[in-house]
Structures are given as structure tokens and as C-alpha cells.
Specification:
The chain has 342 residues and is an alpha+beta fold. Helices cover 41% and strands 21% of the residues.
Length: 342
């Protein structure tokens, strides 16, 4: 536990610990090592209120926080835990409940229903809402060239995809409120997230708080937040625009014609290095690529989004879906480098 200048004592979760480390200017790796070893590393204290020895981690962090003087911070709590340590200008008026209400109305206006939500989750880091529209559908035809097994070609079936959007929000300072275009493949439920998006940072007016630390609600702040939330509805419509969907499908179709000419293990290694995949993730991508029997750029991006379904962390799964989506906007030279494992 880390004791802050609050009316109560809260257990600090990993997200808040990361933000405390950044605020205190302590490298996260060192911070975590000292935190984990703090029970064995103690220093004597001279305080009458604390006559016993205190863990070195507590002493270090408290001294660093004290050195900040009168700087004010926002500590977000839930269920007895401090879940975020943020600036006092962080907007608390773009919270998950408010965002979800706007998203639900946007869903209805788009003619969609709860059944069209293919995935949703609230983690310590973010809110996720992934929605697909059956009204916008297209077919990707994988290339059947260069796919010989013995003397026979392996014929790849057409793959049906649908348009959709993902809404993401973070109450804990780990991402903007954003709406992004997605494509969903029906056959294996792979999902790609496109990079370009509407983003709204959680920065607003400096918060005013009472003596007990509670935040005052201001009419001006609420009006500003309401105007920003209304933009979510507009960007949901944009993500479901048919012209944008057809353009993205065209880029997806182009990747089916890009053959992976380099050594397959080397292709996966280069891809993993470029997009920051772990060793375990690279192994999964290689397995999925071989089992998919599609040695094209389309097969590679499918292998990555398939891996997204196999990781335990929902946050990381979503990041992998976004990595898969980046293949459709790569410049031609980078595509060639990947295909040749250069």
C-alpha cells in the first residue's frame, strides 16, 4: 500500500503505480523491483507516529511526492482501490457511463441492435465496445496462386466481411475517447481495427475540489463534455459509411496478391520486430500462418488477428487487432520489405 494525502487509505493498483512512477520521475523497471522487494528492504524512521522501520519503497516514494510541494493531483478510486493518479485537469465528465449512453443512442440511430455487439469489455485500462453492421457486407477473394500441395492447388474460399466500429474510452488516463472503423470476418471472427479515428483527449478545465477531496461539478464543464460526446454519434456514422468501407475492402483485397517471398520464419520475425510482438505472440502468428495455408500478406494479417483471439489480456488482444489493421495502410516499400523479410 502507498499512503497518499487523502481522507482514506487506498490499495493502489498496477495502473496507478505506473502513473505514480512517471510522476515521481522513477524508471518503471526500478520502481517495480523496489516495490516488490520493499518488505525485505527497510529503513529506520524517526517519526513518533511511525516508530518502527518502514519499507524503503514507501520512504522513497513519499519523499519524492513531498518534493512536489503544493502540486495537486486527481486520484480516481473505485471499490477501495486507487485506480489512477492523474493531472487535476483530467476530465471526469467523459466517463464510461456517459460514453456508453451516447454510444447506445448512436447504435439505435444507425439501425443496429444489441445483437450486433460482437464484443465488449471494461478493463482496468479501458472500456471497449465492438459493433458490426450486417447491412454493410463484402467478399474478400484470397489469391489461389502459389499454393501447391503436392500436385494440387489448395483452393481458398471467398471470405465474407462486414463493416463496424470500435468505441474505446479510458477513465484512468490510458487513452483518448475514440471511435475507429473495423472490419469483421464472419468465418473465423477475426477483427481488424483501422488506425485513423476520431479521438477526444480527456483534458479539460482544472478541477475544483472540496476539503474532502470530492470534485465539484461545473455547468461549464458539463456543457463542454456534452458537446464532445455528441461528436461520438457523428463518428459512428462515419465509421459505417459505405464508401469508406468499400475503399478499405479494396485495400484488403490487394494484400491477397502480395506473396510472402522470404523465409516464413524470418517474415514473422521481421513483422514481430516491426510491430512489437512478444516471442510467444510471434510463435502463435507463425503457427496460425502455417495452419491457414495462405502465404500472402492477407494470410499474415489474418494470422495476427487470429493470435488476438488467443491472448488472455483483452487490452492486448485489441492492440493486436489494431496491428492487423495497419497492414492496409502500409507504404509499398514497407510491404515489400515485409514480404521479402528484408
Amino acid at each position: 500500500r502507498t499512503h497518499l494525502m487523502l481522507p482514506e487509505t487506498y490499495e493502489v493498483n498496477d495502473v496507478a503505480h505506473g502513473q505514480l512512477a512517471e510522476y515521481a520521475g522513477v524508471p518503471k523497471g526500478f520502481y517495480d523491483r523496489l516495490r516488490n522487494a520493499s518488505e525485505d528492504l527497510q529503513v529506520p524512521t524517526l517519526s513518533e507516529a511511525q516508530p518502527s522501520e518502514s519499507p524503503l519503497f514507501d520512504v522513497m516514494l513519499n519523499r519524492l511526492l513531498e518534493s512536489k510541494g503544493q502540486d495537486t493531483r486527481l486520484v480516481r478510486t473505485l471499490d477501495g482501490k486507487a485506480r489512477a493518479f492523474l493531472s487535476d485537469s483530467f476530465s471526469v465528465d467523459l466517463d464510461n457511463f456517459d460514453v456508453f449512453q451516447v454510444a447506445a443512442r448512436a447504435l439505435i440511430e444507425a439501425g443496429l441492435e444489441p445483437d450486433n455487439v460482437v464484443s465488449c469489455e471494461v478493463t482496468e485500462r479501458r472500456l471497449y465496445l465492438k459493433v458490426v453492421s450486417p447491412k454493410l457486407e463484402a467478399t474478400i477473394q484470397p489469391s489461389n496462386l502459389h499454393r501447391r500441395h503436392g500436385e494440387h492447388y489448395i483452393l481458398k474460399e471467398p471470405q465474407v466481411v462486414q463493416a463496424g466500429f470500435v468505441l474505446m474510452n479510458s477513465e484512468t488516463g490510458l487513452g483518448s475517447l475514440c471511435v475507429q472503423q473495423v472490419v469483421y470476418k464472419l468465418m473465423c471472427t477475426n477483427l481488424w481495427i483501422r488506425e485513423d479515428a476520431y479521438r477526444q483527449r480527456h483534458i479539460g478545465r482544472v478541477l475544483e475540489a472540496g476539503e474532502n477531496g470530492s470534485v465539484y461539478r461545473s455547468d461549464t464543464r458539463l456543457a463542454d463534455a456534452h458537446a464532445r460526446l455528441l461528436k461520438v454519434r457523428d463518428h459512428v456514422s462515419s465509421a459505417l459509411d459505405e464508401t469508406r468501407f468499400r475503399a478499405l475492402v479494396g485495400k484488403m483485397q490487394e494484400t491477397t496478391e502480395v506473396r510472402l517471398e522470404g523465409n516464413i520464419e524470418r517474415v514473422v520475425e521481421v513483422t514481430g520486430r516491426k510491430f512489437g510482438l512478444s516471442q510467444e505472440e510471434k510463435s502463435s502468428v507463425l503457427k496460425n500462418l502455417i495452419e491457414g495455408a495462405d502465404l500472402s500478406l492477407w494470410g499474415l494479417t489474418n494470422a495476427i488477428t487470429q493470435t488476438a483471439q488467443e491472448v488472455e489480456s483483452y487490452d492486448r488482444a485489441t492492440e493486436l487487432e489494431a496491428i492487423g489493421g495497419r497492414f492496409f495502410s502500409l507504404p509499398t516499400p514497407e510491404v515489400r520489405e515485409l514480404a521479402k523479410a528484408a
